[in-house]
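Exercise 7. Predict the structure of Hexosyltransferase from Handroanthus impetiginosus.
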Amino acid sequence: MGSPPPLYFNAGMFVFEPNKITYESLLETLQVTPPTPFAEQDFLNMFFQQIYKPIPLVYNLVLAMLWRHPENVELDKVKVVHYCAAGSKPWRYTGKEDNMDREDIKMLVKKWWDVYDDESLDYKGEEEGEESFSKPSIMASMPEPAVSYIPAPSAA
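Solution. The predicted structure, encoded as tokens:
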């Protein structure tokens, strides 16, 4: 059967505060590491491959887990959803991309919009006259980036 593939994390959900020695080692290693398709994500995975410890899925649900390993997902307990699958960004969601026309995805996208539209969560300046932030969203009007996407290795 062979050994399982090495762990690979998505750098969009990565928190680390290196000590000075690790920081300097990161910079030195970066100077001699050839470029890769997923830049910092590949580099961080390579650098931390021996010490990386994944957090529970409930704090970083990568959407591909819903169709690749549904038995490992407790959707009702999820706290953080990582919308990194093609077509999954809530402000661009159409349901037409592969694996996106699913009830669980639709529910998560709806929850994202519910939180986004909740005006009680809008920043309100504490001092009189201070600017507050509200709708309309600039996100919905953002132009589609002019880049070609290459599917990244999935953490799922």
